[in-house]
Design a protein that fits this description.
The protein has about 130 residues and is an alpha+beta fold. The chain has six helices and five strands. The chain has one domain: Arc Repressor Mutant, subunit A. β3 and β4 form a beta hairpin. Pfam families: HTH_5 (PF01022).
Length: about 130
């Protein structure tokens, strides 16, 4: 099986990033992942089928926004916040701030909890851990 890899940091394209963020589900996923924690796909609470979630996560990965890691049959995803901030300073914070203000993607969260965007972050401040 071919292992899918996100682009290298210097190959992340602004057009690809903006294109990937043109969907409320994907913006919601970025909001959830903005706390810097790696999440198992099964932890993500989204109002779509698993195959559609897989598509959204692939779009985010292919654009360089997230990184996916497979461990056995489980997949984990994390935001590439540092890479994005180096490549496009301030972009992620601006997107997250606007998404918080307009509640874009607010219906996406984690199983058993509030959407992480509301629970762990101040609006507009991407708290991405190393």
């Amino acid at each position: 099986m071919k292992k899918a890899q996100p682009p290298d940091p210097d190959e992340i394209s602004l057009i690809d990033v903006l294109g990937a963020l043109n969907d409320p589900i994907r913006v919601g996923l970025v909001r959830v992942l903005a706390d810097g924690r790696e999440r198992g796909w099964g932890e993500l609470r989204v109002p779509v089928a698993k195959s559609t979630l897989s598509h959204h996560l692939r779009v985010l990965r292919d654009a360089g926004i997230t990184r996916t890691r497979q461990e056995g049959t489980r997949c984990f995803v994390e935001l590439r916040g540092e890479d994005l901030d180096v490549r496009f300073p301030g972009l992620l914070g601006a997107v997250l701030g606007a998404a918080d203000r307009d509640d874009v993607g607010g219906h996406v969260g984690v199983v058993g909890g509030l959407p992480e965007a509301r629970a762990d972050r101040k609006p507009g401040a991407p708290q991405v851990e190393s």
